[in-house]
Amino acid sequence: ILAEYTGTISFGKETKGKQRLVITDEHGEAHEELIPKYRVINVFEGEHVARGEVIADGELTPHDILRLRGIPDLAAYIIKEIQDVYRLQGVIISDKHIEVIVRQMLRKVEISDTGDSGYLRGDQVDKARLLEENRNLEQAGKFAAKFEPMLLGITKASLVTESFISAASFQETTRVLTDSSTRGARDELRGLKENVIVGRLIPAGTGLAYHQERRRRRHLTIDSANSLFMDSDSSESRVDEGENVA
Question: Which of 26, 71, 80, 84 is deepest in the core (most CB within 10 A)?
């Protein structure tokens, strides 16, 4: 069990099967925590504890670590626990492979304050997309959205990916394809998995240059179409002006 607040420890009146632990913060506000009697408490009366510090024995909860300590401590905890299992079997694996998985599990955030964005409180969005939108809002002199990090399980993280082809290939294929067709979703084929499924070069290694060139040509085509559209509009306006003058 982790301390929810920073402050000084004291003990209150015990209840049936519970120990009452009180943390008094620097403002004098008391925060109570009821701990089962079978738990061994690791702190004593008058001890000063920091937020996120262990106050009683037991298995740590990843969601509590994320909420109280932050992403670096959570990543270190998950990597250590997974490595302990592998090393117990005599298997040596680099941390970077686990870090890739942890990064995908932490790619979503939950909106806590909408600011001037178009999101609603409680929306779950990609962190990279939200950070980009916040930069645009700040450049425009508006208030950025605030968010809290989220920890998703491997199954959930695989199903909420932007690519519906990648999500459908993992689990719940019928539901994913039905939802995507209902929403009229478009798959931009930005990831590795969806490009492998459709038989194209992956956007990595030697295939990266191919995808960059393809993206550049697409932007050129869009820009050319926009310029032609603008030219046709200006030509029509000049014709209309000439007819009015005549």
Answer: 71
Contacts of 165 (CB under 8 A, 6+ apart): 187, 189, 193, 194, 197, 198
Torsion, CA 13, CA 15, CA 18, CA 21, rounded to 10: -20
pTM of the model: 0.72
Name the token pair of 200.
């194209």
pLDDT tens digits along 218-233: 778 776 766 665 655 5
- Of the CATH numbers 3.40.50.2300, 2.40.50.100, 3.40.50.2000, 3.40.1440.10, which one belongs to the domain with range 7-58? 2.40.50.100
* Cα-trace Rg, the chain: 27
SS3 state at 160:
coil
Phi-psi map region of 45: left, alpha, beta (phi>0 left; psi -120 to 50 alpha) = beta
Closest CA to 149 of 69, 54, 53, 79: 69
